[in-house]
Protein backbone atom coordinates (compact mmCIF):
# COMPACT_ATOMS: atom_id res chain seq x y z
CA UNK A 1 0.00 0.00 0.00
CA UNK A 2 1.28 3.47 -0.72
CA UNK A 3 1.81 5.79 2.21
CA UNK A 4 1.91 3.31 5.08
CA UNK A 5 2.10 4.77 8.54
CA UNK A 6 4.04 3.18 11.36
CA UNK A 7 2.66 3.35 14.90
CA UNK A 8 4.87 1.85 17.57
CA UNK A 9 3.02 0.16 20.41
CA UNK A 10 4.63 1.16 23.67
CA UNK A 11 3.03 -1.69 25.62
CA UNK A 12 6.36 -3.48 25.80
CA UNK A 13 8.38 -0.43 26.72
CA UNK A 14 9.55 0.64 30.12
CA UNK A 15 6.21 1.84 31.46
CA UNK A 16 7.95 3.72 34.27
CA UNK A 17 9.51 5.92 31.59
CA UNK A 18 6.58 6.14 29.24
CA UNK A 19 7.09 9.77 28.25
CA UNK A 20 10.72 9.20 27.37
CA UNK A 21 9.87 6.01 25.49
CA UNK A 22 7.23 7.83 23.42
CA UNK A 23 9.70 10.60 22.65
CA UNK A 24 12.29 8.04 21.62
CA UNK A 25 9.76 6.56 19.16
CA UNK A 26 8.79 9.96 17.75
CA UNK A 27 12.45 10.91 17.38
CA UNK A 28 12.97 7.62 15.57
CA UNK A 29 10.42 8.54 12.92
CA UNK A 30 7.15 7.09 14.26
CA UNK A 31 4.13 8.42 12.36
CA UNK A 32 1.84 7.99 15.32
CA UNK A 33 1.67 6.31 18.71
CA UNK A 34 -0.49 3.26 19.34
CA UNK A 35 -1.43 3.34 23.03
CA UNK A 36 -2.89 0.13 24.43
CA UNK A 37 -5.39 0.61 27.19
CA UNK A 38 -6.38 -2.79 28.37
CA UNK A 39 -8.08 -4.34 31.20
CA UNK A 40 -9.93 -7.50 31.86
CA UNK A 41 -10.34 -10.89 30.32
CA UNK A 42 -11.43 -12.28 27.00
CA UNK A 43 -14.11 -14.98 26.49
CA UNK A 44 -12.79 -18.30 25.22
CA UNK A 45 -12.56 -18.55 21.47
CA UNK A 46 -15.00 -21.43 21.38
CA UNK A 47 -17.64 -19.62 23.38
CA UNK A 48 -17.06 -16.58 21.26
CA UNK A 49 -17.66 -18.50 18.02
CA UNK A 50 -20.96 -19.86 19.30
CA UNK A 51 -22.12 -16.38 20.23
CA UNK A 52 -21.03 -15.04 16.86
CA UNK A 53 -23.06 -17.77 15.09
CA UNK A 54 -26.12 -16.75 17.00
CA UNK A 55 -25.76 -13.10 16.13
CA UNK A 56 -27.36 -12.00 12.91
CA UNK A 57 -25.00 -10.49 10.39
CA UNK A 58 -26.50 -7.04 10.06
CA UNK A 59 -27.44 -6.54 13.67
CA UNK A 60 -25.10 -5.42 16.33
CA UNK A 61 -24.28 -8.08 18.84
CA UNK A 62 -23.18 -8.04 22.37
CA UNK A 63 -21.10 -10.30 24.45
CA UNK A 64 -21.40 -9.53 28.09
CA UNK A 65 -18.08 -10.45 29.58
CA UNK A 66 -16.73 -9.18 32.83
CA UNK A 67 -13.26 -8.83 31.45
CA UNK A 68 -11.69 -8.22 28.10
CA UNK A 69 -8.03 -9.17 28.37
CA UNK A 70 -6.01 -10.55 31.28
CA UNK A 71 -3.76 -7.55 31.73
CA UNK A 72 -3.88 -3.89 32.78
CA UNK A 73 -1.87 -0.98 31.45
CA UNK A 74 -2.92 2.62 31.91
CA UNK A 75 -5.88 4.91 31.44
CA UNK A 76 -6.78 8.48 30.60
CA UNK A 77 -4.77 10.16 33.40
CA UNK A 78 -1.59 8.79 31.86
CA UNK A 79 -2.72 9.84 28.38
CA UNK A 80 -3.29 13.34 29.72
CA UNK A 81 0.24 13.46 31.10
CA UNK A 82 1.68 12.17 27.83
CA UNK A 83 -0.19 14.84 25.91
CA UNK A 84 1.22 17.52 28.19
CA UNK A 85 4.73 16.22 27.82
CA UNK A 86 4.68 15.51 24.08
CA UNK A 87 2.71 18.54 22.91
CA UNK A 88 -0.18 18.73 20.45
CA UNK A 89 1.46 17.12 17.42
CA UNK A 90 1.74 13.38 18.04
CA UNK A 91 -1.30 11.37 16.96
CA UNK A 92 -2.56 9.11 19.76
CA UNK A 93 -4.39 6.00 18.57
CA UNK A 94 -6.02 4.57 21.68
CA UNK A 95 -6.49 0.82 21.41
CA UNK A 96 -9.23 0.26 23.96
CA UNK A 97 -9.20 -3.39 24.94
CA UNK A 98 -11.85 -2.88 27.56
CA UNK A 99 -15.23 -4.44 28.08
CA UNK A 100 -17.32 -1.29 28.35
CA UNK A 101 -15.71 1.07 25.87
CA UNK A 102 -18.58 3.58 26.18
CA UNK A 103 -17.37 4.78 29.54
CA UNK A 104 -13.97 6.12 28.46
CA UNK A 105 -14.88 8.14 25.37
CA UNK A 106 -15.19 11.51 27.02
CA UNK A 107 -12.29 11.09 29.46
CA UNK A 108 -9.99 10.01 26.62
CA UNK A 109 -11.10 12.92 24.44
CA UNK A 110 -10.47 15.37 27.26
CA UNK A 111 -7.09 13.75 27.95
CA UNK A 112 -6.01 14.41 24.36
CA UNK A 113 -6.62 11.19 22.43
CA UNK A 114 -6.96 11.61 18.64
CA UNK A 115 -8.47 8.27 17.75
CA UNK A 116 -10.60 5.91 19.82
CA UNK A 117 -10.29 2.33 18.63
CA UNK A 118 -12.76 0.02 20.34
CA UNK A 119 -13.54 -3.67 19.97
CA UNK A 120 -16.65 -4.73 18.14
CA UNK A 121 -16.92 -7.65 20.56
CA UNK A 122 -17.18 -5.34 23.53
CA UNK A 123 -20.26 -3.28 22.80
CA UNK A 124 -23.93 -3.88 22.13
CA UNK A 125 -24.36 -0.70 20.16
CA UNK A 126 -21.46 0.14 17.85
CA UNK A 127 -23.51 2.79 16.02
CA UNK A 128 -24.14 4.85 19.14
CA UNK A 129 -20.53 4.51 20.21
CA UNK A 130 -19.25 5.65 16.80
CA UNK A 131 -21.49 8.70 17.03
CA UNK A 132 -20.34 9.50 20.55
CA UNK A 133 -16.66 9.24 19.60
CA UNK A 134 -17.21 11.66 16.71
CA UNK A 135 -19.16 14.08 18.87
CA UNK A 136 -16.20 14.08 21.19
CA UNK A 137 -13.95 15.13 18.33
CA UNK A 138 -11.99 11.93 17.85
CA UNK A 139 -11.48 9.64 14.89
CA UNK A 140 -13.09 6.21 15.06
CA UNK A 141 -11.26 2.91 14.93
CA UNK A 142 -13.07 -0.43 15.04
CA UNK A 143 -11.14 -3.54 16.05
CA UNK A 144 -11.85 -7.24 15.67
CA UNK A 145 -10.17 -10.08 17.52
CA UNK A 146 -8.80 -13.11 15.66
CA UNK A 147 -11.93 -15.16 16.38
CA UNK A 148 -14.27 -12.54 14.93
CA UNK A 149 -15.44 -12.83 11.33
CA UNK A 150 -14.63 -9.78 9.24
CA UNK A 151 -18.15 -9.60 7.78
CA UNK A 152 -19.37 -8.39 11.18
CA UNK A 153 -17.32 -5.28 10.70
CA UNK A 154 -18.63 -4.51 7.22
CA UNK A 155 -21.90 -2.78 8.24
CA UNK A 156 -19.85 -0.15 10.08
CA UNK A 157 -17.05 0.28 7.59
CA UNK A 158 -18.46 3.39 5.96
CA UNK A 159 -18.86 5.12 9.31
CA UNK A 160 -15.38 4.56 10.69
CA UNK A 161 -11.94 5.96 9.92
CA UNK A 162 -9.98 2.80 10.53
CA UNK A 163 -10.50 -0.94 10.85
CA UNK A 164 -8.08 -2.82 13.10
CA UNK A 165 -7.54 -6.47 12.26
CA UNK A 166 -5.86 -8.07 15.27
CA UNK A 167 -3.07 -10.45 14.29
CA UNK A 168 -2.70 -11.87 17.83
CA UNK A 169 -5.14 -12.44 20.65
CA UNK A 170 -5.25 -9.07 22.38
CA UNK A 171 -3.57 -8.73 25.75
CA UNK A 172 0.18 -8.87 25.44
CA UNK A 173 3.02 -7.77 23.23
CA UNK A 174 5.58 -10.18 21.84
CA UNK A 175 3.20 -12.85 20.53
CA UNK A 176 3.43 -14.70 17.23
CA UNK A 177 1.91 -13.10 14.12
CA UNK A 178 -1.21 -14.90 12.84
CA UNK A 179 -0.82 -15.04 9.10
CA UNK A 180 -4.29 -16.54 8.73
CA UNK A 181 -5.75 -13.09 9.51
CA UNK A 182 -4.48 -11.72 6.19
CA UNK A 183 -7.57 -12.75 4.19
CA UNK A 184 -9.58 -10.42 6.47
CA UNK A 185 -7.30 -7.53 5.58
CA UNK A 186 -7.44 -8.39 1.90
CA UNK A 187 -11.23 -8.66 1.94
CA UNK A 188 -11.58 -5.27 3.65
CA UNK A 189 -9.14 -3.66 1.22
CA UNK A 190 -11.14 -5.01 -1.72
CA UNK A 191 -14.51 -3.96 -0.31
CA UNK A 192 -13.46 -0.59 1.09
CA UNK A 193 -10.56 0.74 -0.99
CA UNK A 194 -10.15 4.01 0.90
CA UNK A 195 -10.52 2.68 4.45
CA UNK A 196 -7.50 2.85 6.73
CA UNK A 197 -6.66 -0.70 7.77
CA UNK A 198 -4.44 -1.35 10.75
CA UNK A 199 -2.74 -4.58 11.77
CA UNK A 200 -1.59 -5.18 15.33
CA UNK A 201 0.30 -8.07 16.86
CA UNK A 202 3.55 -9.75 15.90
CA UNK A 203 4.26 -7.30 13.09
CA UNK A 204 7.91 -6.61 12.33
CA UNK A 205 10.52 -6.94 9.58
CA UNK A 206 9.71 -10.65 9.13
CA UNK A 207 5.96 -10.24 8.74
CA UNK A 208 5.44 -6.77 7.25
CA UNK A 209 5.47 -8.14 3.68
CA UNK A 210 2.33 -10.19 4.30
CA UNK A 211 0.52 -7.20 5.82
CA UNK A 212 1.48 -4.91 2.97
CA UNK A 213 0.51 -7.47 0.37
CA UNK A 214 -2.90 -7.89 1.96
CA UNK A 215 -3.48 -4.14 1.94
CA UNK A 216 -2.84 -2.87 5.47
CA UNK A 217 -1.67 0.75 5.62
CA UNK A 218 -1.44 1.44 9.34
CA UNK A 219 1.17 -0.73 10.94
CA UNK A 220 1.42 -1.27 14.67
CA UNK A 221 4.66 -2.78 15.80
CA UNK A 222 5.61 -3.24 19.43
CA UNK A 223 8.44 -5.50 20.43
CA UNK A 224 10.10 -5.51 16.98
CA UNK A 225 10.72 -1.77 17.36
CA UNK A 226 11.00 -1.39 21.12
CA UNK A 227 13.52 -4.16 21.55
CA UNK A 228 15.69 -3.06 18.66
CA UNK A 229 18.98 -1.24 19.24
CA UNK A 230 18.14 0.89 16.26
CA UNK A 231 14.41 1.68 16.22
CA UNK A 232 14.87 4.30 13.52
CA UNK A 233 16.05 1.78 10.96
CA UNK A 234 13.33 -0.73 11.89
CA UNK A 235 10.66 1.96 11.46
CA UNK A 236 12.02 3.08 8.13
CA UNK A 237 12.39 -0.51 6.94
CA UNK A 238 8.78 -1.26 7.86
CA UNK A 239 7.59 1.88 6.12
CA UNK A 240 9.55 1.27 2.96
CA UNK A 241 8.52 -2.40 2.60
CA UNK A 242 4.91 -1.50 3.30
CA UNK A 243 4.81 1.43 0.89
CA UNK A 244 6.38 -0.47 -2.02
C1 LIG B 1 -1.68 -6.60 21.96
C2 LIG B 1 -1.58 -5.14 21.70
C3 LIG B 1 -0.52 -4.79 20.74
C4 LIG B 1 0.88 -5.20 21.18
C5 LIG B 1 1.73 -5.33 19.96
O1 LIG B 1 -2.80 -6.86 22.71
O2 LIG B 1 -2.79 -4.67 21.16
O3 LIG B 1 -0.56 -3.43 20.37
O4 LIG B 1 1.48 -4.30 22.05
O5 LIG B 1 2.99 -5.76 20.32
P1 LIG B 1 3.84 -6.73 19.38
O6 LIG B 1 4.15 -5.97 18.13
O7 LIG B 1 5.03 -7.05 20.20
O8 LIG B 1 2.98 -7.93 19.09
ZN1 LIG C 1 -2.79 -2.69 20.30
UniProtKB/TrEMBL annotation:
Its EC number is 5.1.3.1. Keywords: Carbohydrate metabolism, Isomerase, Metal-binding. Its cofactor is Zn(2+); Co(2+); Fe(2+); Mn(2+). Belongs to the ribulose-phosphate 3-epimerase family. InterPro entries: Aldolase_TIM (IPR013785), Ribul_P_3_epim (IPR026019), Ribul_P_3_epim-like (IPR000056), RibuloseP-bd_barrel (IPR011060). Gene3D superfamilies: Aldolase class I. It catalyses: D-ribulose 5-phosphate = D-xylulose 5-phosphate. PANTHER family: RIBULOSE-5-PHOSPHATE-3-EPIMERASE. Pfam families: Ribul_P_3_epim. This is Ribulose-phosphate 3-epimerase. It is an enzyme of class 5 (isomerase).
Amino acid sequence: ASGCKIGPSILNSDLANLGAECLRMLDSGADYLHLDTLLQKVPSRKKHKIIMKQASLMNSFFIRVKHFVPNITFGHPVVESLRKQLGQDPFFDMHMMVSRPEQWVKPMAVAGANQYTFHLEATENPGALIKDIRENGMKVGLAIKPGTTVEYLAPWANQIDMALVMTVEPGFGGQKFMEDMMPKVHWLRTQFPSLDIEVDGGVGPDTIHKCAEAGANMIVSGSAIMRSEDPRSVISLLRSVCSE
